[in-house]
Amino acid sequence: MGLNDETSRQSLIGLLRAPRYEVLPTDDIEQLVLTHVPHDVTMTITASPRRGIDATISLAERLAKHGYHVVPHISARLIRDDAHLREVLARVDALGRGEVFVIAGDAKEPAGDFPDSVSLLTAITAETHGLREIGVTGYPERHSFIEDDLTIQAMWDKRRIATYIVSNLCFDPRIVKKWVARVRRRGVQLPIHVGLAGVAEPAKLLRVSTRIGLADSARFLRGHSNWFMRMVQPGGYDPERFATGLLPDLAAPERRVVGLHFFTFNEIEATERWRQDALSRLLVA
Question: Would you place residue 108 in the very low, low, confident or very high pLDDT band (cuts 50, 70, 90)?
């Protein structure tokens, strides 16, 4: 694996033992999770304009009944008003996990009172809820529409409400390392879960992205125009190379990198097989 020090090796073992898998709430995903994913993996469930927030919460409820630690994504632009927010929070509370991931969302227009994640986070603090963990997004690469200074400022604005950050999809560990250092220099000390793509053939990733709706796919491709080329190039993206490329820098305690968040595009069988193989190699190294 290219790790030349014991601290880095142990750090990667720890990160791979309890990762997060992000999935889309498609019709077949529940059975795929039950078949391929052990319970030490946290399942995070996206929210899309096409499927709506109910699909996200419903899948979270079903997976929680199977014993998984689930983290539903709550999209600000899919929440109509305070009453709708209270309904969603009550369903989340019933999961018994006390955790959500708050995003602005991809809907072109807000469904109601919450145009962005900051407004939704503020509204959540005014409600009675059982949340113990609230995640927000960070952007290692330049956002399509928002300047980098503003994305880090937004994290600063959220830091009193949020409890951790998940970095958005990125294919270059050097960019992620620089971003983490920049976030820390600006005084944001929330724990970070590093986001990375899982294992899947490029054609499968493209098919899965289109299953969430053409508009959703267009938004994704607009924000990550180089992802497909990175996947298909010889020697292109590889999660093992990405993960080892984060070290030893992000193994340092002051960086506060606490986990890996895999964007699986529902191709979880291949990602889980890779994770188990990687752990086996690390444990005998």
Answer: confident
Task: Please give the CATH architecture assigned to the domain spanning 6-284.
Answer: Alpha-Beta Barrel (3.20)
- Give the predicted TM-score (pTM) of the model: 0.89
Side-chain-side CA neighbours of residue 260 (13 Å): 28
pLDDT in tens, 180-220: 999 999 888 999 999 998 987 766 656 655 554 434 444 55
Mean pLDDT of 218-234: 58
Q: Which residues of 237-260 are buried (b: 16+ CB within 10 A; e: fewer)?
A: bbbbebbbbbbebbbeeebbbebb
Q: Where are the domains of the chain?
A: 6-284
